[in-house]
Amino acid sequence: MSDAASGSGRRASRRANKSSRAFRTISEVSTHLDVPQHVLRFWESKFSQIKPMKRGGGRRYYRPEDVALLTRIRDLLYNEGYTIRGVQKLLREKGIKFLLADAVIESEEDNINDQPSILDAIVERGGHPGADSSELNQVDKMELLSIREELLSIRNALIGLT
């Protein structure tokens, strides 16, 4: 293998192992978000909140906070049907922190909805690890399901407060 080929391989593996706190180039952010670089530059012109550092030659370096905001903007535009004006209005009225907190809540909801319910597992196991499901009577099952519903309604109320 030539020195040039092995050098580029080392650079690629070094990029893959970057810290989550590391700054990213426009190329890395573009790949991460699956949007072209010119779209990122366009979004910079439309959203004053996106402020990558610029080094010699105009190279952009995005902070982790910029990447998080760009990720949320992409989701709002591409997945939730917002227009650029709509996202601008959200940022103006609610602020960056609201948009990013909203993204965290949605991510947690997805995680919760994708995982089997802990209470469902308890009911299946009969109330405790290793228990036979026949040990849990119908009244206990109904009580657990009622508690589950109450907890879900509390969670939804708390989400509505943010």
Give your account of this protein's structure.
This protein has 162 residues and is mainly α. Helix content is 68%, strand content 4%. The protein is built from eight helices and three strands. The chain has helices spanning 3-16, 26-33, 37-46, 64-79, 84-94, 96-114, 118-125, 138-161, and strands at residues 24-25, 53-54, 60-62. The chain has a three-stranded antiparallel sheet. Strand 2 and strand 3 (60-62) form a beta hairpin. The chain is elongated and about 70 Å long. It starts with a helix and ends with a helix.
Structure at a glance:
With 162 residues, the protein is mostly helical. It contains eight helices and three strands, in the order H-E-H-H-E-E-H-H-H-H-H.
Helix content range of the residues, please? 55-70%
Mean pLDDT across all residues, rounded?
74
Q: Proportion of β residues? A: under 5%
What is the molecular shape? elongated
Gyration radius, rounded: 23 Å
User: What is the terminal-to-terminal distance?
Assistant: 55 Å
Say what oligomer this is.
single chain
- The number of helical elements comes to 8
Number of strands: 3
Q: How is the largest sheet built, in terms of strand order?
A: 1-3-2
